[in-house]
């Protein structure tokens, strides 16, 4: 896609530079996101309200419960459907930890990346 012939040459170059530069920034961003999410500190409605930011209380994905990190990543009906498409079984995080124990390190890192990126995309919705 970076060398899309329909884009003017200066746009193709800018796109290549953006893709190349984003690798380390994205990796650091995912690590920060995972750290915040694991602490329950990512910017969800409950955390924004604690900081005095006006926002909607209910989860924008299911409109049923208050949006918290726990709800967003594990109990939201939308999230459950996303995880069901990727993995069979019940508790995704229990499955993730069990899978990590049997995988060799390079494969473990790839598995971690999939789970973190899917969680990040859910949060971004």
TrEMBL record:
Pfam families: zf-RVT
Keywords of this entry: Membrane, Transmembrane, Transmembrane helix
InterPro entries the UniProt entry points to: RVT-Znf (IPR026960)
Transmembrane segments: 80-99
Highest taxon, organism lineage: Eukaryota
Every Reverse transcriptase zinc-binding domain range: 30-83
Protein name per Swiss-Prot or TrEMBL: Reverse transcriptase zinc-binding domain-containing protein
Highest classification ranks of the organism: Eukaryota, Viridiplantae, Streptophyta, Embryophyta, Tracheophyta
């Amino acid at each position: 896609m970076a060398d899309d012939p329909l884009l003017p040459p200066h746009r193709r170059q800018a796109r290549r530079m953006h893709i190349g530069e984003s690798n380390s920034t994205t990796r650091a961003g995912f690590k920060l996101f995972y750290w915040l999410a694991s602490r329950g500190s990512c910017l969800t409605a409950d955390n924004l309200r604690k900081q005095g930011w006006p926002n909607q209380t209910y989860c924008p994905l299911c409109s049923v419960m208050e949006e918290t990190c726990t709800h967003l990543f594990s109990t939201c009906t939308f999230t459950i459907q996303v995880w069901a498409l990727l993995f069979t079984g019940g508790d995704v995080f229990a499955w993730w930890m069990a899978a990590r124990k049997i995988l060799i390190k390079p494969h473990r890192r790839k598995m971690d990346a999939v789970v973190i990126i899917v969680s990040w995309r859910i949060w971004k919705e």
